[in-house]
Amino acid sequence: MKGTINKKIPYLFIAPALILLCLFSLFPIFVALIISFTDIDLAGLADWSTISFIGIKNYLDVLSDPIFLKSILNTLFYVVFGVPLVIVCSLGIAILINYGKAPIFKAFRAVFYMPSVTNVVAVAVVWSYLYNPQFGLFNYILGLFNIPAVPWLQDPLMAKISLIALALWRAIGVNMIIFLAALQGIPKTYYEAAQLDGASDWKQLTKITIPLLRYAIFFVSITTMIGWLQFFEEPFIMTDGGPLDSTTSVALFIYRNGFQLSNFGYAAAGSFILFIAIIIVTLIQFRLQKKEVDY
Amino acid sequence: MKANQYVNNQRSKQWILGIVLTIGGFLISIPFIWMILSAFKPESEILQIPPTMWPKDFTFDNFSYLFDNMNFGKYTFNTIIVVLCSFIGLFLNAMAGFAFAKYEFKGKQPLFYLVLATMMIPGQVTMIPVYLILNQLQLTNTMAGIVLPGLVGAFGIFLFRQFMSTIPDELLEAARLDGASEFRVFIQIILPISKPILAVQGILTFIAGWNSFLWPLIIANDESLYTLSVGLALLKGQYGGNFGLQMAGSTFMVVPIIIIFLLFQKHIIEGYTISGMK
């Protein structure tokens, strides 16, 4: 029968999707690479003759741009504190929910998952209100315990921590579900055997659960790290990178240079540096993962 | 004796767990609770210290202001258009997934790897060139420009392929013997069988469309093209001090999603298991 199917048909099925993916995903990579070596800006958009090839000047400039360097340090801060927090919190909640037997525990999945499906802009707007130094709920609650008001978004260090708290709140849901799926894949017999041997809950957790979740932890840590490297909406809406650029992420730096200052070539160079960083980080993680499997 | 003690022990553990998770769930929900309650307070009550939990003067003024003075009706309309268009994208993803699952053709493997490769490209790298490309096509500041770049996605194609490759070939052969065209086979056989994955993807597509923010922000200069997210970000910029208005806008954006999510959460959450995201 197979022979009678018109050979063109499969191509007709994949063509629309493939054309769109090529036009808006693959082709732009080459465009980005080319324009990162040019000085294209708003004028160049209207008249191509004003664009000139300037070699690696954009890369040299961006790497010596103090705001870019600051945004790299900020992004590293987000990654270093954000990734472990996301893993520990989402794994912890997943283990607790999985441990529960009553049907009510299924409802907890929905409650903890909810923040991650809601609109990031709306959520950031709400959190800005909660963080408000005078009228915010958080400082009011602290006040009830006689704790002095915290400058949530006004202090350079505190602002970064506040943004991490919001992003963590949003990130728990999806990762918790991934961990739950993995937890349900662990055969019950392992635990039964361990209980017969009199192993404590803690022993079962550290000797059975965590080692068997290695793949899920690896998956979550890679996706979370890539997500934090591209951290954008929260600083964009809540602090616009301030105070004193202390919350500017690399992604926000690229957006600002590309679309607010229209320095397309310069922003493209910045975006390539981010791309390379993401590739390197991913490769390192794969390396580390392989090593762990060895013993 | 010992067994009894074990059961009691287990029961108290379950209770402690339940209490811990309830407290955690409450803490997680505070921003939502606070947002919804504040949306119904007049501005004077919002700025009151100490804050009231439950609105004393329950009011819909914040919401009516959004629609009367802030164009939220137009933003809602645009958002719904974006959502509807994204369902066309969903259909295109399903078509591609079907072809990759059920046909043999030249270049299938490399083309599929090409699709997967696009998953790894970060949005920041493509956003500037895509803007330039759309500018060349004269599509900036149009609905098409907002919708086209995100229409199809590698992840969706991948999930459809995974699911559809489990459908037995005999079903397709039977339909073909009856003289059905390949496209009819897809519409009348494949799509109905793929309901579980369609449901998951449909809900996620709806949520993504409803929440779309960055791309409409970049492409739309004209207020008449703004989506709700963009309008809300604008509102925060213009009415930074008016929290009642901001909370009403946020509530209007978030509550529909929460309702849809609560109705379909079982499908969404279990969808992760279908998709083999273990």
From TrEMBL, chain A:
Membrane topology label: Multi-pass membrane protein
Alphabetical list of CDD domains matching this protein: TM_PBP2 (cd06261)
Localisation: Cell membrane
A Pfam family that the UniProt record links to this protein: BPD_transp_1
InterPro entries (UniProt xref): ABC_transporter_permease, MetI-like, MetI-like_sf
One biological process term in Gene Ontology: transmembrane transport
Classification via SUPFAM superfamilies: MalF N-terminal region-like, MetI-like
Keywords: Cell membrane, Membrane, Transmembrane, Transmembrane helix, Transport
Sequence similarity: Belongs to the binding-protein-dependent transport system permease family.
Any one GO CC term of the record: plasma membrane
The keyword ATP-binding is assigned to this record: no
Membrane spanning stretches: 12-35, 76-99, 111-130, 161-183, 212-231, 264-286
Gene3D superfamilies on file: MetI-like (1.10.3720.10)
Protein name: Sugar ABC transporter permease
From TrEMBL, chain B:
Domain of life: Bacteria
Keywords: Cell membrane, Membrane, Transmembrane, Transmembrane helix, Transport
Topology with respect to the bilayer: Multi-pass membrane protein
Keyword Cytoplasm listed: no
Main location: membrane
Family statement: Belongs to the binding-protein-dependent transport system permease family.
Name of the protein: Carbohydrate ABC transporter permease
